[in-house]
C-alpha cells in the first residue's frame, strides 16, 4: 500500500504513520532522534519524516547508485549506510 503503518507497544494498529510523501515500496525503517527514515525501494531514495506526527520532512538521500535501497543504519560517526 506504499505506506508506513504504526502499532502500539502491544501490537494494536494505530494507523498510517507517513503523510503525503513520494514513498514507493517501503523496504526499511529506522528511528533516530526526532526522525524516522524510510527506504523507498522503487523510489530509489531514503525519505525522512518527523517522529512526532509522521509529517514528511525531505528526501534525505538519493542518487543513480541507489537502486532498490532496503536496510538502513547510521554508523557511530553519523554516516548513513544503505543496503542496496
Helix-and-strand structural type? mainly beta
Beta-strand percentage?
over 45%
Mean pLDDT: 92
Helix content: under 10%
- Name the strands of the widest sheet in spatial order: 3-4-5-6
**Which spans of ≥5 residues are poorly predicted at pLDDT below 50?**
none
Radius of gyration: 12 Å
Count of DSSP-assigned helices: 0
Element order, helices and strands?
A: EEEEEEEE
Number of strands: 8
**Largest sheet, strands/sense/barrel:** 4 strands, antiparallel
Shape: globular
Q: State the distance separating the first and last CA atoms.
A: 22 Å
Structure in words:
With 84 residues, the chain is an all-beta fold. It contains no helices and eight strands. The chain has a four-stranded antiparallel β-sheet, with no helix packed on it. Strands 1-2 form a two-stranded antiparallel ribbon. The protein has a two-stranded antiparallel ribbon with strand order 7-8. The protein is globular. The two termini are 22 Å apart.
Amino acid at each position: 500500500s506504499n505506506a508506513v503503518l504504526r502499532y502500539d507497544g502491544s501490537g494494536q494498529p494505530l494507523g498510517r504513520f507517513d503523510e503525503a510523501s513520494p514513498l514507493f515500496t517501503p523496504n526499511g525503517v529506522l528511528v533516530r532522534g526526532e526522525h524516522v527514515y524510510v527506504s523507498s525501494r522503487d523510489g530509489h531514495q531514503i525519505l525522512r519524516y518527523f517522529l512526532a506526527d509522521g509529517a514528511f520532512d525531505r528526501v534525505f538521500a538519493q542518487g543513480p547508485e541507489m537502486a532498490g535501497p532496503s536496510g538502513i543504519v547510521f554508523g557511530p560517526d553519523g554516516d548513513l549506510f544503505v543496503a542496496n
